[in-house]
Design brief:
Elements: H1 13-30, E1 33-39, E2 53-59, H2 62-74, E3 78-80, E4 90-94, E5 105-110, H3 114-128, H4 130-147, H5 151-167, H6 172-179
Parallel strand pairs: 2-5
Antiparallel strand pairs: 1-2, 3-4, 4-5
Protein backbone atom coordinates (compact mmCIF):
# COMPACT_ATOMS: atom_id res chain seq x y z
CA UNK A 1 0.00 0.00 0.00
CA UNK A 2 1.20 3.51 -0.82
CA UNK A 3 0.54 5.23 2.51
CA UNK A 4 1.48 8.84 3.06
CA UNK A 5 3.95 9.38 5.86
CA UNK A 6 5.27 12.67 7.24
CA UNK A 7 8.80 12.38 8.63
CA UNK A 8 11.13 14.84 10.36
CA UNK A 9 13.42 16.84 8.09
CA UNK A 10 16.36 14.85 6.73
CA UNK A 11 19.51 16.83 5.99
CA UNK A 12 20.29 14.39 3.15
CA UNK A 13 17.33 15.59 1.04
CA UNK A 14 19.20 18.42 -0.77
CA UNK A 15 22.00 16.00 -1.71
CA UNK A 16 19.44 13.45 -2.94
CA UNK A 17 17.95 16.17 -5.14
CA UNK A 18 21.37 17.14 -6.51
CA UNK A 19 22.23 13.52 -7.28
CA UNK A 20 18.94 12.98 -9.11
CA UNK A 21 19.30 16.29 -10.93
CA UNK A 22 22.69 15.15 -12.21
CA UNK A 23 21.17 11.87 -13.44
CA UNK A 24 18.30 13.69 -15.18
CA UNK A 25 20.22 16.54 -16.82
CA UNK A 26 21.65 14.58 -19.79
CA UNK A 27 18.15 13.40 -20.75
CA UNK A 28 16.36 16.65 -20.00
CA UNK A 29 18.92 18.71 -21.90
CA UNK A 30 18.08 16.75 -25.05
CA UNK A 31 14.36 17.31 -24.39
CA UNK A 32 14.47 21.12 -24.27
CA UNK A 33 15.06 21.72 -20.56
CA UNK A 34 14.52 25.32 -19.53
CA UNK A 35 14.58 25.15 -15.73
CA UNK A 36 14.79 22.59 -12.93
CA UNK A 37 14.20 23.13 -9.21
CA UNK A 38 13.90 21.21 -5.95
CA UNK A 39 10.40 22.01 -4.67
CA UNK A 40 8.06 20.76 -1.99
CA UNK A 41 8.71 20.32 1.69
CA UNK A 42 11.94 18.36 1.25
CA UNK A 43 13.38 21.57 -0.23
CA UNK A 44 12.69 23.53 2.98
CA UNK A 45 15.35 23.10 5.68
CA UNK A 46 13.86 21.92 8.95
CA UNK A 47 10.38 21.16 7.57
CA UNK A 48 8.73 17.79 8.20
CA UNK A 49 7.77 16.19 4.90
CA UNK A 50 6.81 13.14 2.96
CA UNK A 51 10.23 11.62 2.25
CA UNK A 52 9.78 12.15 -1.48
CA UNK A 53 12.01 14.52 -3.45
CA UNK A 54 9.80 16.73 -5.65
CA UNK A 55 11.46 18.12 -8.75
CA UNK A 56 9.82 20.76 -10.93
CA UNK A 57 10.97 20.98 -14.52
CA UNK A 58 10.07 23.28 -17.38
CA UNK A 59 10.65 22.32 -20.99
CA UNK A 60 10.12 23.99 -24.35
CA UNK A 61 7.62 21.35 -25.54
CA UNK A 62 5.55 18.74 -23.73
CA UNK A 63 5.06 16.98 -27.08
CA UNK A 64 8.82 16.37 -27.31
CA UNK A 65 8.83 14.92 -23.78
CA UNK A 66 5.87 12.66 -24.58
CA UNK A 67 7.28 11.52 -27.94
CA UNK A 68 10.97 11.18 -27.07
CA UNK A 69 11.49 11.47 -23.34
CA UNK A 70 9.13 9.10 -21.58
CA UNK A 71 11.16 5.92 -22.30
CA UNK A 72 14.43 7.65 -21.39
CA UNK A 73 13.07 8.99 -18.10
CA UNK A 74 11.52 5.61 -17.33
CA UNK A 75 14.94 4.02 -17.89
CA UNK A 76 16.03 5.87 -14.71
CA UNK A 77 13.40 4.01 -12.67
CA UNK A 78 10.44 6.37 -13.10
CA UNK A 79 6.86 5.50 -13.98
CA UNK A 80 4.98 7.97 -16.22
CA UNK A 81 1.38 8.66 -15.23
CA UNK A 82 -0.06 8.56 -18.75
CA UNK A 83 -3.64 8.85 -17.46
CA UNK A 84 -2.94 12.11 -15.59
CA UNK A 85 -6.12 14.15 -16.08
CA UNK A 86 -4.02 17.32 -16.28
CA UNK A 87 -2.60 17.51 -19.83
CA UNK A 88 -0.37 20.46 -18.86
CA UNK A 89 1.60 18.65 -16.16
CA UNK A 90 3.51 15.46 -16.87
CA UNK A 91 4.01 13.46 -13.69
CA UNK A 92 6.59 10.74 -13.09
CA UNK A 93 7.04 8.69 -9.89
CA UNK A 94 10.23 6.89 -8.93
CA UNK A 95 10.19 4.04 -6.44
CA UNK A 96 6.87 2.34 -7.09
CA UNK A 97 7.70 -1.14 -8.26
CA UNK A 98 7.63 -4.66 -6.90
CA UNK A 99 11.29 -4.15 -5.91
CA UNK A 100 10.83 -0.73 -4.29
CA UNK A 101 7.38 -0.09 -2.81
CA UNK A 102 8.43 3.31 -1.40
CA UNK A 103 8.18 6.46 -3.52
CA UNK A 104 11.44 8.36 -3.58
CA UNK A 105 11.06 11.07 -6.25
CA UNK A 106 8.34 12.91 -8.15
CA UNK A 107 8.95 14.77 -11.40
CA UNK A 108 6.53 17.53 -12.38
CA UNK A 109 7.22 18.55 -15.99
CA UNK A 110 5.43 21.60 -17.38
CA UNK A 111 5.84 24.48 -19.75
CA UNK A 112 7.21 27.72 -18.29
CA UNK A 113 4.61 29.73 -16.43
CA UNK A 114 2.48 29.81 -13.29
CA UNK A 115 2.61 26.08 -12.49
CA UNK A 116 6.38 26.13 -12.13
CA UNK A 117 6.58 29.67 -10.78
CA UNK A 118 3.98 29.08 -8.03
CA UNK A 119 5.71 25.90 -6.88
CA UNK A 120 9.01 27.75 -6.53
CA UNK A 121 7.38 30.80 -4.89
CA UNK A 122 5.62 28.58 -2.32
CA UNK A 123 8.90 26.84 -1.51
CA UNK A 124 10.61 30.20 -1.12
CA UNK A 125 7.87 31.52 1.18
CA UNK A 126 8.25 28.46 3.41
CA UNK A 127 12.03 28.90 3.44
CA UNK A 128 11.79 32.58 4.36
CA UNK A 129 8.98 32.46 6.94
CA UNK A 130 9.38 29.88 9.75
CA UNK A 131 5.89 30.63 11.10
CA UNK A 132 4.24 29.78 7.79
CA UNK A 133 6.43 26.68 7.49
CA UNK A 134 5.38 25.52 10.97
CA UNK A 135 1.69 26.09 10.21
CA UNK A 136 2.10 24.09 7.02
CA UNK A 137 3.79 21.22 8.87
CA UNK A 138 0.97 21.18 11.42
CA UNK A 139 -1.64 21.12 8.65
CA UNK A 140 0.11 18.27 6.81
CA UNK A 141 0.31 16.15 9.95
CA UNK A 142 -3.38 16.73 10.69
CA UNK A 143 -4.37 15.86 7.13
CA UNK A 144 -2.25 12.70 7.09
CA UNK A 145 -3.87 11.59 10.34
CA UNK A 146 -7.21 11.55 8.45
CA UNK A 147 -6.21 10.77 4.88
CA UNK A 148 -2.98 8.76 4.88
CA UNK A 149 -4.25 6.34 2.23
CA UNK A 150 -5.69 8.96 -0.16
CA UNK A 151 -3.01 11.00 -1.94
CA UNK A 152 -5.48 13.03 -4.00
CA UNK A 153 -7.51 14.03 -0.93
CA UNK A 154 -4.30 14.82 0.96
CA UNK A 155 -3.14 17.14 -1.82
CA UNK A 156 -6.55 18.79 -2.13
CA UNK A 157 -6.75 19.36 1.64
CA UNK A 158 -3.59 21.51 1.44
CA UNK A 159 -4.79 23.61 -1.50
CA UNK A 160 -6.51 26.40 0.43
CA UNK A 161 -3.44 26.94 2.63
CA UNK A 162 -1.12 27.04 -0.38
CA UNK A 163 -3.34 29.49 -2.24
CA UNK A 164 -3.54 31.77 0.81
CA UNK A 165 0.25 31.78 1.13
CA UNK A 166 0.67 32.54 -2.56
CA UNK A 167 -2.20 34.93 -3.12
CA UNK A 168 -3.57 36.03 0.26
CA UNK A 169 -7.14 35.72 1.59
CA UNK A 170 -8.59 36.71 -1.79
CA UNK A 171 -7.76 33.19 -2.94
CA UNK A 172 -10.39 31.67 -0.62
CA UNK A 173 -12.95 31.75 -3.44
CA UNK A 174 -10.49 29.96 -5.72
CA UNK A 175 -9.81 27.32 -3.07
CA UNK A 176 -13.54 26.76 -2.58
CA UNK A 177 -14.00 26.37 -6.33
CA UNK A 178 -11.13 23.88 -6.54
CA UNK A 179 -12.43 21.74 -3.69
CA UNK A 180 -16.00 21.54 -5.07
Amino acid sequence: MDEIEITPYDARWPALYEAERARLLPILSRLGLIEIAHIGSTAVPGLAAKPVIDIAITVASLDVVREQGVPEIESLGYLFWAENPDPHDFFFVKGLSPHSPQRSHHLHITLPGPRFDDRVRFRDRLRSDPEIAQRYATLKKAVVARLSADREAYTLAKTEFILRVLHGPASDACAAAISN
